[in-house]
Amino acid sequence: MAEFLDLESQDGVRMPWNVIPGTKQEAANAVVPVAVIYTPIKHFPSSAAPLLPYQPQRCRTCRSVLNPFCIVDFAAKIWICPFCFQRNHFPPHYASISDDNLPAELFPQYTTIEYASTPDPTATVPPVFLFVVDTCVIEEEIGYLRSALLQAVELLPENSLVGLVTFGTFVHVHELGFAQVPKTYVFKGSKDVSKDQLLEQMCFFANKPKPAVGVIAGARDGLSRESISRFLVPASECEFTLNSVLEELQKDPWPVPADQRATRCTSTALSIAASLLGACVPGSAARIMAFIGGPATEGPAPIVSKQLTEPIRSHKDLDKDSVPHYHKCVKFYDGLAKQLVHQGHVLDLFACALDQVGIAELKTAVERTGGLVVLAESFGHSVFKDSLKRIFQASNYDLGLSSNGIFEINCSKDLKVQGIIGPCATLEKKTPLCSDTVIGQGGTSAWKMCGLDKSTSLCLFFDVVRKETPDATVQSTSNQFYFQFLTYYQSNSGEMRLRVTTLSRRWVAGPGSSQDLIAGFDQEAAAIVMARQVSFKMETEAEFDPIRWLDKALINLCSRFGEYQKDSPTSFSLSPRLSIFPQFMFHLRRSQFVQVFNNSPDETAYFRMILNRENVANSVVMVQPSLITYSFHSGPEPALLDVAAIAADRILLLDSFFTVVIFHGSTIAQWRKAGYHNEPEHQAFAQLLRAPHDDAESIIKERFPVPRLVVCDQHGSQARFLLAKLNPSATYNSDAALPGGDIIFTDDVSFEVFLDHLQRLVVQ
Q: Would you call the peptide bond into 182 cis, given omega within 30 degrees of 0 as the criterion?
């Protein structure tokens, strides 16, 4: 795996096939799609990806950027584009280039490079944060939320603009620019308000008459700066006003009958927030941060009725299509997503409730705008509080939030792009590069990324279009496929940047190509491409059977690349390059992405949104958690994710991305309860207890959303967080567990049985 990690640290790219099947048929036989997982603005040291202070050289025909794979004629000052073979002249300021005097973009090691444009000081709008706060929660929750928001306000960048909308039965837009007394504009929660009505009612045209024609868009088009600064105020100026409004924040005063849910107009509030930003600061780096504490019951998109007799939708209800509001809500939030993408704004969602709040419906609006999402049980939970702090805190682990991104792609003419699964929205730029088969956001070669950060990762799918196998001479002379990814974005300092990553990968076709394909197979990347694809299919295809689809793919892959004699399961073997892939598939089949039983639609949507935006290393931990054991006999060491890892005298640390579990064996737990670790002669035991906590701390420190920490003992109720993830090699109906070990009460098959069946099916 090491060489794939090296490639990732150079370009932020992981591919299942680093040697690509060269024809359409070969690609179909290879089972795992030709795909790329790319982290557009991954953080590199400046030695790896230099920042150039000038404009890039573009190809006249295909607009690709000058890169190390171009053929350069130094005498004639011409470069040939590797994508369309167009000959381009260098401009006069490149006159001094030669073999030993290359510009940075032609250095062979700089396959990823960044260009900074000279900023126009008049055009830059500071970042905007619009807090949309739910007040239909109990007093205790209001208290937690108030203290979290006060802390966030202190951490905001000095120059940023801040706005506040609170909602319950009605929507209140607070005029923070009016410091003398608290002043709000109130809108009825059950009515959808258009942008024009909003501007009219909020007196935007009191001093400056409304223009007769054209779209109203910010201070340049139709609005005065004074009217905008009533609602969006610099953080440094409004801290006192904002603090006093938050200090006074009360629970929604409207009475709630005992047999009903609270009247919560989430959709109206989000729609008003989007229209307000669209009118005041279109195209700027603005985020709507929604803090929601329960299900929406009012407005254009309620997820459930007010009557408590109607339960909130479950996966079963969605499968049976018996949810009255579901399609209406999804349609509403699709419209909101389109509006936000058009404005270039981001929707972040903080859902903190024991009940569902409607993440499943809101998913498109958050995902297409590249928003952040955090799901917790309460506003007082560390998962919410620490995650909110991480967004604004400037530290080594800051998220590097950027905005206004546009992602474009160029590739060799034998490849076509099918689409992207990840946090972006199509710009519907149809080019000859687009494939007829569409996966995710497809039918385009350019995408909008309203919000992106250092770990945002896109999964791109490609079609190989070449039909017949070229002869050997063609293969030996032009055996490279080229890809170029262009990401324009506004960094958190406000300057516009362009990052260019250009890759070349060898392709193979014809007899004997299997060995080459296996040599370039990255099993971790392949597992994550399959995970994203299966999650996407489960959401978009009716009657789709994920287990069957994954099993079929695994059997086909093993029979294509495994070595065996027909009808002899014992003869089956896989190359080390493929040997862990079946294990990943086993854990993927059991993961929360595929098994929706015991999860609400909101939780499933949340898990999939995070899977679709994280890089390979983090996604692998979601699919197959890592397990480390601590004991007196040895230092911390990795263990197999198996029930056999449990022992009475061991501590286990499980990292499943969303939760970090510290599990004490029964003997360790007894000693801890007896207080041995406090006695001076048992220093070694105290250190053993501390070690997993230190490691958990370092995991939690650099992860977003902050994971939940569970500390539990063997046979305790919280031990379920660990047992649910382990391979059930010892169950209640198998042989007895090892002394001091454990068994799992399940009818699930173990990995050994799974592998056994796989071998039998492959050799048929």
A: no
